[in-house]
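// run 5 | inverse folding | seed 20
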């Protein structure tokens, strides 16, 4: 059975599945869909056009489906937020709906959005993504599966974060971050592979070694970009490396981050 606190305000036009728990002073508008087993804590607001899947945990004072922060947004436009299953959304997080008519902000499954994080209009978040406290995603940002966004990170519109990449705390991301790497700095710079993340995901040592080879060609060789990519394809055969090359080749508004210039020892070689 579902449990709706008598102090909550839930539209009769919302669809609430069995097993949903809605706390006091929650507001749920028309045309909202809440899946089985989801919990929505006190003072949260779920705006019209939002679909939330099963077994999500939405902590106090979360706002989902609010109008986008876009000066040219037409308030008569119908747009959406779609959230999958088993996500945790912590206190005061905000997720805005799409800005173009019939467009959506999309969040997959098993993601963890920490307190005061912000996901702007038309973002696409994959699965198993972590977005830490006070991280801010501008419109149309994409984060692939297992991406990790540390606290205080700000991400520019249309930027892409690849799978298993990690962005260090308080970094300004104004370019694309390729998969599997660690990016840190005032403006994001590559600091080698995300070794800890790759090991946690169970990637074999041989795969990590091949990714390291590809990383060195991509970031440290003197060739033009297409020559680098062809060299990687000729010399390194690995699914993860092919994914890296495909990410770089995908058309985008931006290029990808460059490597920080170390003075001295090759840090990445020292950890493998």
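// decoded
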């Amino acid at each position: 059975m579902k449990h709706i606190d008598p102090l909550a305000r839930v539209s009769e036009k919302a669809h609430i599945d069995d097993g949903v728990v809605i706390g006091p002073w929650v507001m749920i508008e028309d045309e909202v869909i809440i899946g089985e087993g989801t919990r929505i804590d006190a003072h949260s607001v779920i705006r019209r056009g939002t679909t939330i899947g099963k077994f999500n945990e939405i902590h106090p004072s979360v706002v989902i489906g609010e109008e986008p922060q876009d000066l040219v947004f037409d308030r008569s436009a119908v747009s959406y937020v779609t959230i999958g299953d088993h996500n945790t959304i912590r206190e005061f997080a905000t997720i805005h709906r799409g800005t173009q008519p019939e467009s959506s902000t999309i969040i997959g499954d098993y993601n963890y959005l920490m307190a005061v994080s912000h996901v702007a209009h038309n973002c696409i978040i994959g699965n198993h993504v972590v977005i830490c406290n006070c991280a801010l995603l501008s419109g149309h940002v994409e984060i692939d599966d297992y991406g990790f966004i540390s606290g205080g990170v700000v991400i520019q519109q249309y930027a892409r974060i690849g799978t298993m990449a990690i962005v260090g705390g308080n970094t300004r991301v104004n370019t694309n971050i390729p998969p599997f790497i660690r990016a840190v700095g005032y403006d994001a710079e590559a600091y080698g592979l995300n070794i800890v993340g790759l090991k946690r995901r169970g990637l074999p040592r041989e795969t990590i070694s091949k990714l390291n080879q590809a990383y060195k060609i991509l970031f440290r060789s003197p060739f033009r970009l297409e020559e680098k990519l062809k060299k990687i394809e000729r010399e390194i055969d690995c699914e993860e490396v092919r994914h890296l090359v495909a990410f770089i080749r995908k058309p985008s508004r931006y290029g990808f981050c460059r490597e920080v210039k170390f003075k001295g020892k090759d840090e990445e070689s020292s950890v493998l």
